[in-house]
Amino acid sequence: MMKPNVYDQPYTEWKKWMKEQGEPAFRADQLMDWLYCKRVTAFEQMSNLSRDLREQLADSFTLDALETITAQQSVDGTVKFLFQLHDGHAIETVVMRHQYGNSVCVTTQVGCRIGCTFCASTLGGLKRNLTAGEVVAQVVAAQRYLDEAGERISSVVVMGIGEPFENYEATIGFIRIINDSRGLGIGQRHITVSTSGIVPSIYRFADEGLQVVLAISLHAPNQELRKKLMPVSRRYPLEKLLEACAVYEEKTGRRLTYEYALIGGKNDQSEHAHELGQLLADSGSLVNLIPVNYVPERNYTRTPRNQIFRFQRILESYRVKVTIRREHGSDIDAACGQLRAKHLQIEQRSS
């Protein structure tokens, strides 16, 4: 039987575990310090814990949640990691450098079943959910990488492979663990969760009392087009999604972000911009325009820059706040799921 991942345990559970071992409560604080501040890679490195306690930890938990298969580094400083899990599955994690700090993009599932036509993550379908600890381990691994340059993670985006709201409990557990001041201490307002629009989970998320940023993958201004690009819209139509978003904003007082991937000739025309502007006029929400990454399996083309700016100007004429996502890692396998898809193709050819 596989031992549980050490990063699956929140601080409250560590306090209980230490009590069960007959250890004082402050041992939980020491353990958190070793895991998240000193970021050790082996229990024997925890020098202020007794040998017996270190052996108990090693017997009960695993500390090697991820193994690096490969890491691609872009000229702009972006690093894309392909990690192997204990069962041989591969996932992606991306470290991105911005003027305002470093962000890490984490994965919540092995594969994805949502089926967005512009995304490489869905190729091969869903294999399994990650545990909260397997998501936490990605942030720890990213921070270990940044430690070498004396840098720190300033924000986390849950936008990697998978749909976070189809792995809801693990996603919430992950947020609470990385937010803990005894651990990585990443502020909730520096954490963004992106969903394709799982309506029941948006209502549920509104009641969690969290201050994280919620981003909605919209990608179309009407239901018919959205169904073609995002099959999830058949289950949760655009009208129902926007109703859930309105409730979320009312309950939390937090502004939503709408992500809109511009796909050449599909959803990037002036009429689409006008329709989107009318849909979100005076909502106070932010639209993040994303020039689509080229995915060979999908054969979608990128929207020309002048057309992206025209789309932005039209939205702004409806008093919608707009940003254009800066491109990261254009010289590596930048699209979400693309590095993993390439790895799977190589494995299939060699088997």
TrEMBL record:
GO terms for molecular function: 4 iron, 4 sulfur cluster binding; metal ion binding; rRNA (adenine(2503)-C2-)-methyltransferase activity; rRNA binding; tRNA (adenine(37)-C2)-methyltransferase activity; tRNA binding. Specifically methylates position 2 of adenine 2503 in 23S rRNA and position 2 of adenine 37 in tRNAs. Belongs to the radical SAM superfamily. RlmN family. InterPro entries: Aldolase_TIM, Methyltransferase_A, RlmN_N, RNA_MTrfase_RlmN, rRNA_lsu_MTrfase_RlmN/Cfr, rSAM, rSAM_sf. Reaction proceeds by a ping-pong mechanism involving intermediate methylation of a conserved cysteine residue. [4Fe-4S] cluster binds at C112, C116, C119. It comes from the Bacteria. It holds the Pfam family Radical_SAM. GO terms for biological process: rRNA base methylation; tRNA methylation. Its EC number is 2.1.1.192. This is Probable dual-specificity RNA methyltransferase RlmN. Residues 98-331 form the Radical SAM core domain. It is found in: Cytoplasm. The active site is at E92 (proton acceptor), C336 (s-methylcysteine intermediate). Its cofactor is [4Fe-4S] cluster. S-adenosyl-L-methionine binds at G162, E163, S194, S217, L218, H219, N293. The keyword Phosphoprotein does not apply. It catalyses: adenosine(37) in tRNA + 2 reduced [2Fe-2S]-[ferredoxin] + 2 S-adenosyl-L-methionine = 2-methyladenosine(37) in tRNA + 5'-deoxyadenosine + L-methionine + 2 oxidized [2Fe-2S]-[ferredoxin] + S-adenosyl-L-homocysteine; adenosine(2503) in 23S rRNA + 2 reduced [2Fe-2S]-[ferredoxin] + 2 S-adenosyl-L-methionine = 2-methyladenosine(2503) in 23S rRNA + 5'-deoxyadenosine + L-methionine + 2 oxidized [2Fe-2S]-[ferredoxin] + S-adenosyl-L-homocysteine. Binds 1 [4Fe-4S] cluster. The cluster is coordinated with 3 cysteines and an exchangeable S-adenosyl-L-methionine. Keywords: 4Fe-4S, Cytoplasm, Disulfide bond, Iron, Iron-sulfur, Metal-binding, Methyltransferase, rRNA processing, S-adenosyl-L-methionine, Transferase, tRNA processing. Its main location: cytoplasm. GO terms for cellular component: cytoplasm. Transmembrane segments: none annotated.
